[in-house]
Amino acid sequence: MTRFGIIGAGHIGSTLARGLVDRGYDVTISNSRGPESLAPLIAELGERATAGTAADAAAFGDVVIVTVPLKAYQDVPVAPLAGKIVLDTNNYYWERDGRIPSLDEKVATTSGLLQEHLPESKVAKAFNHITSSQILTDGRPAGTADRRALATAGDSDEATAFVTALYDEFGFDTVNVGPLEDSWRVERDQPAYVVRQTRDELVDNLALATR
Questions:
Q1: What is the pLDDT of residues 156-208, one digit of tens each?
Q2: CB contact at 8 A, 118 and 76
Q3: What is the pLDDT of residues 129-166, one digit of tens each?
Q4: Which residue, among 66, 182, 189, 53, has the nearest Cα to 118 in the 3D structure?
Q5: Domain with residues 3-141+157-172, CATH architecture
Q6: What DSSP letter does each residue of 126-192 carry, written as one string?
Q7: What is the reported pTM?
Q8: What are φ and ψ of residue 111, in 5° steps?
Q9: Taking the domains of the chain in order of start, what are their residue ranges?
Q10: How far apart are CA 131 and CA 87, in angstroms?
Q11: Does the CA dihedral 36-37-40-42 come out positive or negative?
């Protein structure tokens, strides 16, 4: 079974760790404060979870989730992620991250920046437009009429297919936005951002996005 590394143990990272462990996956999770600070979380998660450094999580995971503040994306280890699928949950909050000219000028995307930082990885957008409190509560069985949908985007078909399968495990339909250059359609302040929507509604909201 796929092993997951998680770089970032905030609301999204810790919630995904819980969801993955509950689904039988082994997880190594890291944060910026060191493995010792994660002892309470690891005790809660149980034997399938371990704490480590960012390098440990990157090396451990067959697939690695990057869920750090955008301002820290260049601190993500590069070499141990070569050839791996990397799921990016990030959003640009200039109030937290400081101004990033290429994003302000709308000539880049958050996931595109991570892909540039990880040139040999297969980056896909995932879990960026849902609040952490809803990740483990809003899922529904496949075929449910009002099943919530989440978006992904990526330049690798393998990576977006992986996200699609993972979303389904968590109880969500998927809409593939397309390549990373189009992932702005599901970023902050767009119609599809952090609203509950079905697949058809998500498709409509993506079409309404303006840059």
A1: 999 999 999 999 999 999 999 999 999 999 999 999 999 999 999 999 999 99
A2: yes
A3: 999 999 999 999 999 999 999 999 999 999 999 999 99
A4: 66
A5: 3-Layer(aba) Sandwich (3.40)
A6: -S-SS-HHHHTTS---TT-TT--EEEEEES-HHHHHHHHHHHHHHT-EEEE--SGGGGGGGSTTSTT
A7: 0.97
A8: -70, -30
A9: 3-141+157-172
A10: 16
A11: negative
